[in-house]
Amino acid sequence: MGKTGKKIKRMLAQGHFALSLHAAERSAERMISESDIMECGASAKKVVFQEDKGTWKVNGSDLDGEDLTVVCKLKGDLLIVTMYRKS
Known about the structure:
Number of strands: 5
Shape: globular
Radius of gyration: 11 Å
Largest sheet: 5 strands, mixed
Order of helices and strands: HEHHEEEE
Strand content: 35-45%
Structural class: alpha+beta
Strand order of the largest sheet: 1-5-4-3-2
């Protein structure tokens, strides 16, 4: 997972993040709460840097145990770009 991946996982789990406007809209639309995002960070088994987009993809689960992916950028602070559940 690497040092940065572990840092992102920890920041998510502790609620140290902000939502972009797009992420806030997706959160409401997909009924994903901040607690679900925190659980994704706590349960994440995989954190991958997407070099082509400059984002980090975090794969974990929500509070109901469903697969949840959170995509974020780390530039000092952690900004969540989007999130989705596997269909």
